[in-house]
Here is the input.
Amino acid sequence: MISKEWVIPTVGIDRVLVGRCLDREVLQPQLFLDKTSSRLEVCTQYVHNLTSIWKNNEDEDISTYDYDHPNRLLENARFTPEKDKALFWTGVSHELRNDYSNRKHRFTLVDQTPGGSLLIDLTYCSHNYYDNETRLCFEKSNQPWDDNLNNETTGGYRGASMAWWQGASRQFAKAASGHTYVLFHKQRQYPTLYSKDSIFSRVEVNHLDPARVSTLEFLLTNEIGIDELETCRGETIQNLTNRFIERGFKQKQIICNEDTWRIKALFCINSNDPMCGAFENLNAIYGSRRDWMVSSIVGWTLLGLVIILLTFWRIIVRARESVESNADRIVNQVDLENNDENFELDNPDDRSNGEETNISLAVGIVDNDLNVSIEDVRGQEIDEL
Here is the structure.
C-alpha cells in the first residue's frame, strides 16, 4: 500500500499541475498568442486534458499515443534543451546524473526542461492502489521513469507514467542540438552497458537528429573496482555507433571518452577504494588527456588572438603617425607659401625701390664703361702726336 503522506487526491492534483504550468512556463509560447484566453485559462485547459486521460482509462492501458492524440499534450510542452547542453543517460543512478549535470548548470536532463518539470517527482498510481478506492492519486518518487535499467522483463512502456516519460524523452531527443552527450555507467550487477529495452535504446537513439546534432559524445565510465570494464573500443560502443551511422550520422560526428576524471571524482567522494587515491592525485596534477588538450588549444588560440590584436594595434599606430607626419609637412609648406605672399603684399614700395636701385646700378656701370673708353681714345691720340 502506498503511504498516505505521499498521496495527492484528485481534488488537489489539478491545482498542483496548474501551479507548475504557470510557475515553470511548461507550455510552448505560441499557445498564449490568443489574447482571448489568459495564461491561467490555457494552463487549466491543458491540465484538464491531461488528467482526463488518467480518469477515463486504466493505468495499464495508457500509452504515449493517448498523450499525442487528440490534444498533442507532449508536442505543446517545452522539452527543448539549450544548444550544446543536452545530456542523455542510461544505466546511471539518479544521484550521479544530477551531480554530473550540476543541476542544469553544466548539462540539461529531460526532467530539467520546463516540460519535464511538470511531472517530476510524481508517479501516477492507479485507483486500485489506494485503499481500493476509485480515485486518482500521485506517489512521490525520485525517478518515476526508471525502467530498472537492464531488467528486460520490465522494459515495456505501458502505464501512465512510463508512457509520459517515453514521449517526453522522444521530444527531448528531437530537440537536442549542437554538441550532445550520452552518459553510460557500467555496473557490476548488470551484464551489459545498457538494456536494449531502455528508453535510451528504444526511443532516444531513434529520434536524435543528425542534422541538428553536430557532435555526439559518449561518456563511458565504469564502476570503481569492477573487473569487466567497458571501453570505447568495445563491442557495445561499436554496435551503438553503427546504429547511429545507419540513422544518418557520420563517423566523424561520434566520439567517445572513457573514465573521464570529472565523473570518476563523483564516485570517489564516498569511496575508500585504493584506486581513488591514485586517481585523484594523478588528475589533480594532470587532469584528463582530453581536458588538457582542450585547455592547450584554448590557451594557444587566446595567445594567437592577442598577438593578432597587438599586430593590428601597431599597424594602426604606425599608420596614424604617418598620417600625422604628412599632415604636419603639408601644413608647414602651406604656411611658408602664405608667408611669401604676405611679404609681397605688405611691402610693395620696397619692391619698387629695389628695382630702381638695380636700374641705377646698371646705368652707372654703363657710364663708367663709356668714360673708360673715351680716356683710352685720348691716350692713343697723344701717343701718335
DSSP finds eleven helices and six strands in the chain.
